[in-house]
Design goal:
With 117 residues, the protein is of the alpha+beta class. It contains three helices and four strands. The chain has helices spanning 39-44, 53-66, 72-86, and strands spanning 3-13, 26-35, 91-100, 106-115. Strand 3 (91-100) and strand 4 (106-115) form a beta hairpin.
């Protein structure tokens, strides 16, 4: 299966369990991988025959900016569910990175893979 990647998509939102996180925008980074057969689009050179990653990015950004989750795990599940419902995607792998303050400036990252139902 071919792959389409949408990487380094940064979105500011409220996320976290601590009180200071509930009052501060944090920048999350999304990296997405979609299983997608690109042969039809390659032959037609027409956007309607491929995954419109611009539309995917717009849906994701709008959703995440309005979200107010506590856990990145919940947000990742919700984003995958939304994209699988809105677009004809068979398989999506999403990596979500959040800045954290453990020992200096660090990042927490999760990665999930979900399939269309």
């Amino acid at each position: 299966m071919d792959k389409i990647f949408l990487t380094d998509l940064k979105v500011d939102t409220i996320i976290g369990i601590y009180e200071w996180e509930r009052n501060t925008l944090q920048t999350l980074q999304f990296d997405l991988e979609f299983d997608w057969d690109i042969q039809t689009a390659a032959a037609s050179d027409d956007i309607k025959d491929t995954l419109d990653y611009g539309a995917v990015a717009e849906v994701l950004v709008n959703f995440v900016q309005e979200s107010r989750y506590q856990l990145i795990e919940t947000l990742a599940e919700s984003v995958c569910r939304l994209l699988l419902e809105r677009f004809p995607i068979g398989v999506i792998t999403l990596s979500l990175t959040k800045p954290v303050k453990l020992h200096g400036q660090n990042f927490a990252r999760i990665q999930i893979t979900r399939h269309a139902r």
